[in-house]
Design a protein that fits this description.
heterodimer, A: 434 residues, alpha/beta, Rossmann fold, N-(1-d-carboxylethyl)-l-norvaline Dehydrogenase, domain 2, 3 domains, six-stranded parallel sheet, 14 strands, 43% helix, globular, B: 448 residues, 18 helices, elongated
Chain lengths: 434, 448
């Protein structure tokens, strides 16, 4: 099929590349000329494992092209909208990019072309987009919803081997076109779910809301365990074997971040307000998470007391999760801000995200290329992201490099007993004692 | 092994019977002489599929005894399981009076050192206090062990015999080994036996129930939002469940959770947290959402019939808080019945197991029906509150004929809305759009 993807951000670029890889002829369109120039020079505006290689191969084979011109939609069968829908001041989604694209499309599309919204948008957006486009065209055009569930760091795999594909359509025929498009990725019986656009839009939010709720739930339980002298890790083992609960996504930590969970939870709250339905659970999930992002700092402040100012703290991990360079809403940023405000010197290391952090903090931090380098002369180490390379470090070397062997572990990477034996003062999340 | 089980309520009776079934000699003690008399004759104080047969067999073969004599019971072996009730106090806290009473008896009556194993659900820290109450200044020292029970009403035997996991909280690894030997017959297919501190074991029980309650309130909140914005929670459920991090289990929208565990345990945790100066946010939300959700059935009845329900007759299918049990504690059906009676409506109810318990609450203020369709006679609407299997595939033609009006409020989303529309029902469910009879539409069109 011939396909246009509008927006070459995270979702747009992965979608364009993976659809090209399955044999389609794809053009990625973005109004940002510098992004398109970068992509045409073979570079990527984002970091995602495995993506660069795929982009390169599909460009070489001419299945993947880039353009700044919406006119490139001419002659394609499907037009995907994958532009950003950031959080506005009220917490609701800012849909201005969506409406700008919809209005501009009116000049270049015509039935039987199908417009597909891939961006995460509030329930009802599809309906308005369809009405708006049809009105401008003077005749009906199909607008489908097809939310994307890819995870940063595993995006290519998630797109090519999806748990499920969800499409929201008003005519079954449109569902069939999309089924054909996704068929190469559904060969191992992954389900293709056809529903109304409203339910499809809601599905995306409900999925992220459930995951965020699990994180805030286990964090709340971790904080309570800590105060009652229980160990959340044992509790986790104790509940996870119940298959109605499971082990997944119940890791206590320093709070969730990224470009999806915080934004989508708040967008849900805004949706609830718009229909006069207070969403108690979502309010709690959001407020628990905001508090959780401050937990590491509280532990640090409590440990050093009034002597905190002038200390040097090493920070391992800045990205909101491993295998990404994304630092949006990352707990690390809140920690850096709080520690800087207290007059603490910071030596930071992250395998991918230092560029983005440098763009925010400039020379207020010391950036270390190697993890151990960050420890040199530091009074303590804070671990904020569970990158693989932090899981089995050389504790002997760490103790030598640190001026004081204190670790604030926001991801519970180590066993308290082991750390105790290795001579560290060790703080985890929801663990016994500290 | 020789075991003593204190308390023949739900957990105690299942525990005692299953341990007897695996070859142990078990003596059950309860202060309620009526219950003990009944049990000696093979009459069970609770309903649980398969339990009666097991009690009878183990009574007959002499592995299971019942007594009201604590001194006798404590002379029977080293292991003493405590499975007494820990009901909710007026302030939400767990009431531990029964537990402390047993501790006092053991202290006074036990002639040798006991391993005292708490099976009851108790707040974190109870085990530590139990050890003090048993031992402080005492001549004989006992061990206090925590061993929370995770059985589900309606599947209790299966859950006990094939547990997902067994959790024990001990300070001394040797005690863990004693319990491991006891549970070994149930752990043959590699189910994990998890040893941790008593505090973590006590916490595990609450966190497991809290997570399950959270999932229910989460999906109910999403269902209510779906209804308000025109989405369908059934499709959304399908859309999220294939994500293995989410799954399908325990994400069924409905009329709220009830029973003797979730409501009590969630509130006990909120109370425990307050006691250590920590304000929970998720769990109070879970409780509040659930309390509101229990009112949803009545609200939906008024949506279909109008707010004046005086003199109307409503049929209710399902009274137990879930299928497979006669337990009606905190059941959504009770809230609905009270609201309907308050509004002056007549109520006709049917439940395969829970009618005696409901009769004890409402007496002759409502009409009890033994047969499913008989319940519907002369009714202006049917409400379904419990998803018993027999309600899943009913004869819709009979239902439409017997009901005075073809109105259904389905609190468990048992049926397909478009199918119900085609069959001529006004059908209201949870998190989905209410449908009108397709036939009425076509008649109206013809009339126009």
């Amino acid at each position: 099929m011939k396909i246009a993807i509008i927006g070459t951000g995270y979702v747009g670029l992965v979608t364009a590349t993976c659809l090209a890889e399955s044999g389609n002829s794809v053009v990625g369109i973005d109004k940002d000329a510098s992004k398109i120039a970068l992509l045409e020079s073979g570079k990527l505006p984002i970091y995602e494992p495995g993506l660069a290689e795929l982009v390169e191969r599909n460009r070489r084979d001419e299945r993947l092209k880039f353009s700044t011109d919406l006119g490139a939609c001419a002659g394609v069968q499907l037009i995907f909208i994958a532009v950003g829908t950031p959080e506005s001041a009220s917490g609701a989604s800012d849909l201005s990019s969506i409406w700008a694209v919809v209005d501009a499309l009116a000049a270049v599309v015509a039935p039987p072309q199908i417009v597909v919204i891939k961006s995460t948008v509030p329930v009802g957006t599809n309906r308005i987009a369809g009405e708006r486009l049809s009105q401008r065209l003077g005749r009906p055009i199909d607008v489908a919803s097809n939310p994307e569930f890819l995870k940063e760091g595993a995006a290519v795999d998630d797109f090519t081997k999806p748990d499920r594909v969800v499409v929201g359509v008003r005519r079954p025929e449109v569902g069939e076109v999309l089924r054909e498009l996704y068929a190469p990725f559904l060969r191992t019986e992954h389900p293709f779910l056809v529903m109304t656009p409203e339910s499809a839009e809601m599905t995306k939010y409900a999925a992220n809301a459930m995951l965020a709720a699990k994180i805030s739930f286990i964090n709340e339980m971790a904080n309570l365990s800590e105060r009652l002298g229980a160990d959340i890790n044992d509790v986790r083992r104790g509940i996870g074997h119940d298959e109605r609960i499971g082990f997944q996504f119940l890791f206590p930590g320093a709070g969730y971040g990224g470009s999806c969970f915080p934004k989508d939870v708040r967008a849900l709250l805004a949706m609830g307000r718009s229909v006069d339905l207070p969403l108690r659970m979502m309010e709690a999930v959001d407020s628990v998470n905001e508090a959780q992002k401050r937990v590491l700092f509280s532990k640090i402040r409590k440990h050093y007391g009034t002597g905190l100012s002038g200390k040097t703290i090493a920070v391992w991990g800045l990205a909101f999760k491993p295998r990404t360079d994304d630092v949006r809403e990352a707990p690390a940023l809140m920690l850096l801000d709080a520690l800087l405000k207290e007059g603490v010197g910071l030596r930071v290391h992250d395998p991918e995200a230092m560029g983005h952090v440098k763009a925010i903090y400039g020379d207020r931090l010391i950036y270390c290329e190697r993890p151990y380098q960050a420890l040199e002369g530091a009074d303590g180490l804070a671990i904020v992201t569970e990158w693989q390379e932090f899981r089995r470090p050389d504790f002997g070397m760490m103790r030598q490099l640190l001026r004081h062997p204190v670790i604030f572990d926001g991801r519970n990477l180590y066993e308290p007993k082991t750390m105790d034996a290795a001579g560290f003062t060790y703080y985890g999340i929801g663990r016994h004692g500290r | 092994m020789q075991l003593t089980v204190v308390g023949v309520g739900y957990v105690g009776l299942v525990t005692a019977t299953c341990f007897a079934e695996s070859g142990n000699d078990v003596t059950c003690i309860d202060i309620d002489a009526g219950k003990i008399d009944g049990l000696r004759r093979g009459v069970l104080p609770i309903y649980e599929p398969g339990l009666e047969e097991l009690v009878e067999r183990n009574l007959r073969e002499g592995r299971l005894q019942f007594t009201t004599d604590m001194g006798h019971a404590l002379a029977q072996g080293k292991l003493v399981f405590i499975a007494v009730g820990t009901p909710q106090d007026y302030n939400g806290a767990a009431n531990l009076n029964a537990l402390w009473g047993v501790a006092q008896s053991i202290r006074e009556l036990a002639g040798e050192s006991k391993i005292v194993i708490v099976k009851s659900t108790v707040p974190v820290g109870t085990n530590r206090e139990l050890a003090m109450r048993l031992n402080d200044g005492a001549h004989i020292q006992h061990h206090a062990v925590s061993n929370p029970e995770f059985l589900k009403e309606g599947h209790a035997i299966e859950d006990f015999m094939k547990p997902d996991r067994v959790v024990v909280g001990v300070h001394d690894a040797a005690l863990g080994q004693v319990l491991h030997d006891l549970y070994a017959p149930f752990l043959r297919s590699d189910h994990p036996f998890l040893v941790m501190t008593p505090e973590s074991a006590e916490m595990t029980k609450y966190v497991a129930n809290a997570m399950l309650a959270t999932k229910i309130s989460f999906i109910n909140e999403m269902a209510n939002l779906c209804e308000a914005v025109g989405a369908d929670i059934g499709d959304v459920r399908r859309g999220i469940g294939h994500d293995s991090r989410i799954g399908f289990q325990f994400l069924f929208p409905g009329a709220g959770y009830g029973g003797s565990c979730f409501p009590k345990d969630v509130r006990a945790m909120v109370h425990t947290a307050e006691g250590v100066g920590y304000t929970l946010r998720i769990l109070p939300a879970v409780d509040e959402i659930n309390e509101n959700q229990k009112k949803v059935l009545f609200f939906k009845v008024t949506e279909l019939l109008g707010t004046d329900l005086y003199g109307k007759t409503i049929a209710l299918w399902g009274l137990a808080f879930k299928p497979g049990t006669d337990d009606i504690r905190e059941a959504p059906s009770l809230i609905l019945i009270r609201s309907l009676l308050g509004a002056g409506a007549h109520v006709r109810v049917h439940d395969p197991a829970a009618i005696p318990n409901v009769k004890a609450v409402f007496g002759d203020r409502i009409t009890y029906c033994d047969r499913v369709y008989h319940t519907l006679q002369g009714c202006d609407a049917l409400v379904i509150a419990t998803e018993w299997a027999e309600f899943r595939n009913p004869d819709f033609d009979t239902m439409r004929q017997v009901l005075r009006q073809p109105f259904i409020v389905d609190g468990r989303n048992l049926y397909n809305p478009s199918e119900m529309s085609r069959l001529g029902f006004v059908y209201s469910s949870i998190g989905r759009q209410t449908v009108m009879p397709a036939a009425v539409h076509s008649q109206e069109r013809r009339a126009a």
